[in-house]
Design brief:
Rossmann fold, binds S-adenosyl-L-homocysteine, globular, methyltransferase, S-adenosyl-L-methionine, alpha/beta, 8 helices, 196 residues, 7-stranded mixed β-sheet, 7 strands
Length: 196
């Protein structure tokens, strides 16, 4: 398939912040994603007390699901508005603190301590800062990353997961010649070459 028309396209962080400000967030699923419900067992694989990562998390309600199941959730999101809306919409008290390793970044943590959301670009993170994860829910993340940044994103994600981790990835199948994205079209062959 010809994805040439999307290759050069870039959505800037500023544009994402604007989407949040304008309430232009059609990607947000208030009821959570049915595919996570369906594949929860694959993600958890019978294990408890996992560390689960939500890249480009928005205010995904699935973070609350996993925290309520006793797992520890870490997300990263550029929009502070999104992060604050997550906590307020679930009536979760939180505190915020600077992240010493990343200039300008803040970490918002639920008072109970099991949900930590970094407000910064995902490219500022490393396993030295956030540790490694047992599971990843990648929905609206790889497909939202600019095509020119995909390799960098995938390498970073690989560096953030433990050996025995599960990585659930949602992509969207459509004709990339008809829509400019995001979400961007990521062909299966590319997923294979990115993640091996
Ligand atoms: N995963 C969420 C949101 C998907 S939309 C969900 O399922 O609802 C993609 C999100 O990524 C937006 O909220 C946008 O603000 C955020 N984002 C875009 N680029 C980012 C980056 N480089 N680092 C962190 N967050 C980013």
């Amino acid at each position: 398939s010809d994805v040439g028309s999307q290759k050069e396209r870039v959505v800037t962080e500023e544009e994402w912040l604007q989407k949040w400000e304008m309430g232009n967030i059609g990607f947000h699923k208030e009821q959570g994603h049915p595919l996570l419900q369906k594949y929860m067992d694959v993600l958890l694989n019978g294990r408890s007390g996992l560390r689960i990562f939500f890249p480009l998390c928005g205010k995904a309600v699935e973070m609350k699901w996993l925290a309520d199941m006793g797992h520890s959730v870490v997300g990263v999101e550029v929009s502070e508005q999104a992060v604050k809306e997550f906590f307020s919409e679930h009536s979760l008290p939180y505190c915020e603190e600077p992240v010493p390793e990343i200039s300008g970044a803040k970490m918002f943590q639920s008072t109970s301590g099991n949900i930590s959301l970094y407000c910064c670009s995902i490219y500022d993170l490393s396993s030295l800062i956030v540790g490694k994860f047992d599971g990843v829910w990648d929905r609206g993340a790889l497909v939202a990353v600019n095509p020119c940044d995909r390799q960098r994103y995938a390498s970073l994600m690989i560096s953030l997961v433990e050996k025995n981790s599960s990585y659930l990835l949602v992509t969207v199948s459509y004709d990339p010649n008809k829509h400019k994205g995001p979400p961007f079209y990521v062909p299966e062959s590319e997923i294979k070459s990115l993640f091996g």
